Amino acid sequence: MPTQPTITVYGAHWCPDCRRSKQFLGEHQIPYNWVDIEQDPVGEQYVLEINAGKRIIPTIEFADGSILVEPSNAELATRLGLKTTAERSHYDLIIGYSLAGAPRGPAAQLINGANAHSAPILSLDTPSGLDTSTGLVYEPAVRATATLTLALPKVGLRAPEAAEHVGELYLADIGVPPELYAGLGLQVGPVFAQSEIIRPHHHPAPAGPLSGDLRKIVRAGPRG
Fold this sequence. Notes:
The protein is an alpha/beta fold. It has two domains: 8-80, Glutaredoxin, CATH 3.40.30; 90-218, 3-Layer(aba) Sandwich (Rossmann fold), CATH 3.40.50. The protein is 28% helix and 15% strand. The protein contains seven helices and nine strands; from the N terminus they run βαβαββαβαββαβαβα. It has helices spanning 16-27, 41-50, 73-80, 105-116, 163-166, 178-183, 211-220; strands spanning 8-11, 33-36, 59-61, 67-69, 90-92, 121-124, 146-150, 168-172, 197-198.
């Protein structure tokens, strides 16, 4: 007899974080109820009540009444009692931002091999096989657990179709001087005032299965 869902996910189909949370639950064969607040006014009102009038999704409710709001995969894993560490991590340094067309040859073989492995994958700057300018996903493309992009987030990393390849997106400070941004006509505030690694539109990067890897890469400095 199928297990009855004890988790309810409140979200919307256009929300990348909702899709990520649903994918995480599905990959771990954890049943859940889905409430699309775009179609369910009662569900939308519940989300507003939980979040002090703010429409924050995904809002995830568990059987004991506890709630996670916009959780990372690591936070979900901890709440569900799932293993959050692996014996080793894979670093995706195959292509990066120099992509020109679909990966092929040895690069394509490495991407397919990484995707077939159970270990977490940390992509540096961008998942190999993803066009950072357009968000176009080539075949094959790395399906990263997390992506550590440098200095400023690339447009393509926020494209809806890129979400399952980017994983959790982090932004790292590599010491770009403000004068350089100004010369490019960009106004960039003190985005790294609280941490050398942040999640765009989130608080400083939380601890998680790849947190040590993230900081190790940043402190080693950029490639080249």
